[in-house]
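Reviewers of the previous submission asked for a worked example of the structure-prediction workflow described in the proposal, so we include one complete record here. The input consisted solely of the amino acid sequence. No template or homolog information was supplied to the procedure at any stage.
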Amino acid sequence: MAMSWKKIGKVASFLSCFLAFAMILFLLSTIFSTALSASRVQGIAMDLDKVAGFSMQGAAADEIEFDELRYRESAKQPTAQEMKEILSEAQAGAEDWRSVRYPAPPLLSSDARYVYMTTRLPEEGYSGMGVFFKTTNESVRLWLDDELIYEYGPMEDGEYSQGVRWHLVLLPAGCEGKSLTFGLHSFSTSNLGRFTRLAVNDVRASVSELFFADLPFVFDLALIFLMSAIIIVYTFPLRRNRQAYAFLLLFLLSYTLWMLSVMNWRYVLLKSSDFWWFMQLSNVYLMAILLSLFLAGFLPVAKRRAMRLLAVPFVLLLIASIVGELFVARGSFFACMDFYYPLGFICTSLASMMLLREARRGNEYCRVALVPFLTIVPLGLFDGLWAQYHLFAWDTYVTPFAILSFVVFILGTIRMRIRDEVRSEAMKKSLLDEIMEARQKAQVDPLTQCFNRYKFNEVFPEWTKVAQGTDGNLALMILDIDFFKHVNDEYGHDEGDQVLRNFAEVLHTALDRRHLLVRWGGEEFVILCLHYTLEEAEIFANQLREKVAESPICNYRPIHCSIGVSYWRGAQQEASALLKCADEALYRAKQDGRNCVRVEQPEGLASEGEVKERTEGLPAH
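From that input alone, the workflow returned the following structure tokens.
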């Protein structure tokens, strides 16, 4: 069935809200990135031309990772003279510096804001290779001996670079055996001096690594687009759980924006680390909020409020993060994430108990909703353990793989809808069958299985239209069993009922689809004869009379009948008038000795006082 204009308008309104939601997130992240950072992106995005040039040369060696780094920390930015001393110490081997084995982070004091880490390149050739590393919330400087070869973000105290960033620094010719010194600056000691990935690698291999790491995200984006289309077209127009599906669409939008913000090639869309960083963190909060609101839609009305309340802590935490980032201190957005995951563990445990309780009570929507919920929550907590708390070495988000569980949910809801539609169709068919059966019972005499007056009232207008559209012939006869009262009085009502049944059965055997047999009341029957002239109806009536007389209808005596016949004179003659003419003819048959047939007289010569009234309840035609 085509969707009504009202439904189309509602879908269009929701799509507008959907796009407005995306635009608000985009503007929010843009405001943050503009107001909080004056830095400009450097590294991979800036050096693509150089990367292309170097990648044509080929690498002289395989990838190498640094086993040991030596480091020193500082609470404030070194002066120019202090910086020269740091680089001199690094070139001399940094014997007095502390040592750390990669990938372990350096052990820093709580007030450290700067760390300098150094290592020495091997004496072999590294033509066409580059230093490939990843940082989080860190500004970077890179020196080859005392020559600055790369810089990213501000190094001034109080100014910070935020976001996750891949860096690819091309090594110039003659770099073999020189010291490689990193200067790192961050507001967070948990991120300061921490490299998620650090190696000297072929440029082409580094770019390929970034590209192939994003393939699961690309697949997920296509899958989200397909699922959203299915929800909008197939599920969202339904009245049932419409609000839940609306929040699911918003959740998928937030999920999409989060994936875009963690993809390695996000800088192709927009060259702003701050923008993508705030986009990533904002959507982490929003996904928790929207997931709670989405699940609440499948709970009973009395329990939805409890599920929605689980979103309140995340709303308050998001507000606190924004206020802190704008008015208190840089890094508040990231710092509040330390509370996000413990809070998420508590809230998701409560939500799981509510869903499981309803699923056990037979709520199928809660049962299928548990699949994505119990998939995305553990994967999200796993990513939090390595990305936020650095409890173990890991470099790949696993949360995007949870999108496959939403396919199970959508297929489950579609299966339930198909099943409900099949049940609904079966119920409709059963109801229609019951209506038809009840209607048939209302139109059929239970004793003789002939139609009753209600059927006659329904069929007569239709048959007159057929007659008027064809040969114009339609006749009616009324049959009355002679001396039927004597049968009841002498042999009992059981025998009388049997006589009525046998009489009707004899008539049935002589009729076809041109005839409509109606028990009019008592021992009287009406036959409507389509395509019969008055003369043909009279002949047919005599045949019926003779067949009744010859049939063993009663066990004790022969049964005869009298018949009155009338002819339909056109659309101006109503059913009541046609019946009156036949009734007058039947009255004359009774007066003439019974067991005979009489036809209507022209212009109705019999007086109305001599005729019994048989037209009560008939509709006008």
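Residues 27-60, 604-621 have pLDDT under 50 and may be disordered. We consider this example representative of the routine output the project will generate in years two and three.
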